[in-house]
Fold this protein.
Amino acid sequence: MRRLADAREEVETWRGVEIKTTELVELLELAESESDKEVAAEVASETEALASRFEDMELELALSGEYDRRNAIMAIHAGAGGTDSQDWAEMLLRMYLRWAEGRKFEAKVLDIMPGEEAGIKSATLEIRGRNAFGYLRGERGVHRLVRISPFDSSKSRHTSFALAEVLPEVESAAEVNIDPDDLRIDVFRAGGHGGQNVQKNSTAIRITHLPTGLVVSCQNERSQGRNKDSAMKVLEARLLERELARQAKERAELKGEHVSAEWGNQIRSYVLHPYKMVKDHRTGYETSDAEAVLDGELDELLRDYQKSTLGD
């Protein structure tokens, strides 16, 4: 039913654009015949907005993968570099939350581990919206930041790293087979900055999948049941991603191809000193408006990456 609703919405969107295009052409012809500069300017403005809408629709057409239309589970991990990398991981978390907000997507932090002095060691969030995984799947990898460290009294330049993981949400139990006997579930008190307990009751959940050794935890909800549901959602997504990676590796081995560790690749650099630039190393896309990108304006980067994968 959801796929049917998506298909109907897509058809209605294209028909709406077709109607709007026809109206603008007719209005422009009228403006030219009557030499009406005011109407012509209005048509130009609306045409620009329509062209922007076309770009968004072009990006959506690129999202044709099996899981692209699903919600996304995203995890961000600070790399080596101490407080600077933990602060960078928090900056990335804010960037993706702001992007989701701009898209009118629902973003929810499922689990977060604060850093000792500042920032975060890791965070897991769920982003719900049409094509959320498709938009974000190209974000998985290592993100590199170059800046003057706010935590260094000598004001020297530091390079920090953080890893982003993006997983498709599992939609049915048939996609992953989890035996309850394969799970070890531990409960503990939710912690805050500095390691102090912020709740008297043990509501936080840690689930270990014994056959694979995968461990997920959630502590942001106030009830143990909700934390368990969120943890299971993340575990299911990780198991699905693990199976997809196994299948991809088998296909590559049959073709005789070398398979690289995808999440180990540095995909993008964010330079704030001595100049400002964000560069995607896979596509070569660059922008000097680093502040806008860090404030969640990611669509140009996402669009350029998706275009580069159309021939894959």
Observations:
- The chain has three domains: 2-62, 72-172+262-308, 174-255.
